[in-house]
Amino acid sequence: MFDKIKKTSKNTAIYGIGNILNKSLGLLLIPFVQKYIPIAEYGWLTLIELSILALSSTIVLGITNGHERFFYTEKDNGSYGVFLFSNSFFLFFVSIVVLSIVALFSQPLSMLVFKSYEYQFAIILSLIITFFEINNIIPFQILQYEEKATQYIVANSTRLLISLLATIVFVAYFKLGILGVLYGRLLGSGGFAIYQLVSTILPRITLQFSFFKVKQTILYGFPMIISSIGYILFSMSDRFMLSHYSTAEQTGKYAFGFKIANLVMIIVQSIGVGYLPSFYLQEKSENNARYYRKMLTYYTFSMSYLVLIFLFFYKPLLKPIISNQDYWEGLEIVPILSLGFLLMGMNYFVNAGIVLKNKTSYLLIPTFVAATINIILIYLFIPLFGFWGPAISTLLSQVIYVSILASISKKFVDIRFEWGKVTLSLLLAVGFFFVGFYVAYYSALLSLLSKFVLLTIYPYVLYKLNFFELIELEKLALLKVKVKKMMHF
Fold first, then answer.
1. pTM > 0.85
2. Which residues are within 8 A (CB) of 400 and not within 5 positions of it... i.e. 6 or more apart?
3. How many domains does the chain have?
């Protein structure tokens, strides 16, 4: 069991790095964005980026989810070439048709979302970016599931570098504002969509279209897309509603705080990306329930610790590069959002029963319940708390979402997750954060020392509270001995 978890952790780390590279463009651009783009325009940029994400999540019709689910099955059956061609071609066709139709309404959409026709061209650019990013999904899944770690990381690194350099030129040199950000993203995504088609898709396809293969993936994945629509309402309504009920400046501040906290989200999603292949591989294992159970426990422990480190040091690290006061004010909501993202990551683990039994339609229940509650709370909280309101409502709704999802999933497969240990690691991290936050008011030196002490004793306190099992401690002790021997040589 420990060896399986160690292998999963290794794969998660490798493909997680690739996912982090893929999604870190916005974070790397912070020094340039806060200098050249006013906070109000940053709010508009965020709405455009959210639209790209929403379209990318829904237009795929569940094909990319189905590709993940049946990848190993189709490989074993020797029919993967037909499976890949059918689904890739259908996805290519659907994305062109749907995005072309949306482009016809770019002018009214600009007025609806941005209250101005000025952003029509930005919407057109975002639709082209969406097309390329949709058709980049399956090639990256192939590299991951075939365990081509080097290619996966190199591809993501190169795409990131192209987008980063191009964006800096367009924003800092040509002063194109948010259009410069979109141009940079387009060059990175477009160039690699073409490269991936030639290097990854074409060598693996069999030129035979099977409607049955497409139907198979859509039947599995489409309920997830319906669920994704609900989750989009859940996870994106905060910025759209804040834009509608507040000011562009407030939206920009919230969006920037969200962008910084999104580092936690990127790590969480990277863990999910790395975990999925192992999740499916363990499906037929005799002791898979214990594997799934321990993965949630280890996820919560490791992410609680990482989030605690992040929240202790994110402000000191950002202070030298953020000179714009409007952007700095947005950092206040980062702790609340970070905790919400940590909870969101539990979804990859607690939905095991639903996924294993192919009952993906049941994902609709927690998604739409949480989305409805979130929208109501945002509406109520914005007048009371300003841009803090959506952050608080998102955290509360995330708790509701995880609780309902775990309850439904349990009806299909009872994994018996270690909720006591999960809650313990979470509450201890929250408690340590408040201690570090309180001490910071008295002395900068004392604050720094206290944070290092708290981070050092966090695992020890859990150990004294019987968080770790005896076999886990024995394996860790053996690993420690091996590391010492390697260092000696």
1. no
2. 366, 369, 370, 373
3. 1
